[in-house]
């Protein structure tokens, strides 16, 4: 089976939909009673609005580009190196989803430490100092936000 696709159009559509959904979720997720021009919703609206605009631009670029990629799906496709790379990306996304679920129950520090260790082991890091730097950064983030700034971490 042959499929022709344009990755710019697909990415543009996906991120435009994500941006639109997030835009409409802002009022329910960030409640504020402020009536001024700049509120707690301002920065998320700017970021998500930028995501939406750039994804529409990416979609438009895909419309006007002439090159389309063609993929042939057969039995050998599932044993190719490019399929393995895509599969590694999917596993990475599953790590991030598991992290989002674990951060509520285990808290920021423990779930982030588990995420860092899992990702480093998954991508084959074996030297001890590859683990020290991100683990130390988790400690620094906890100390700065939790201890110095008194921001409650999940």
Question: Largest sheet at a glance?
Answer: 2 strands, antiparallel
How are strands sequenced across the largest beta sheet? 1-2
The SSE string, one letter per element, is: EHHEHHH
General shape: flat
- Give the class from helix and strand content and strand pairing: mainly alpha
**N/C terminus separation:** 47 Å
Share of residues in strands: 5-15%
How many domains? The number is 2
Summarize model confidence as the mean pLDDT: 87
Number of strands: 2
- Tell me roughly what share of residues is in helical segments: over 70%
Instruction: Please report the number of helical segments.
Output: 5
Question: Which residues sit in consecutive blocks of at least 5 with pLDDT less than 50?
Answer: none
Radius of gyration: 21 Å
């Amino acid at each position: 089976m042959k499929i022709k696709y344009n990755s710019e159009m697909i990415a543009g559509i996906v991120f435009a939909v994500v941006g639109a959904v997030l835009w409409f979720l802002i009022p329910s997720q960030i409640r504020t009673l402020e009536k001024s021009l700049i509120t707690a919703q301002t920065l998320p609206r700017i970021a998500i609005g930028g995501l939406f605009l750039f994804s529409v631009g990416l979609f438009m670029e895909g419309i006007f580009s002439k090159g389309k990629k063609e993929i042939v799906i057969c039995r050998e496709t599932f044993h190719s190196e490019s399929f393995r790379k895509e599969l590694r990306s999917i596993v990475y996304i599953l790590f991030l989803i598991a992290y989002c679920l674990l951060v509520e129950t285990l808290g920021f520090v423990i779930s982030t430490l588990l995420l860092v260790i899992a990702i480093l082991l998954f991508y084959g890091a074996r030297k001890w100092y590859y683990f020290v730097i991100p683990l130390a950064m988790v400690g620094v983030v906890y100390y700065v936000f939790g201890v110095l700034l008194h921001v409650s971490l999940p």
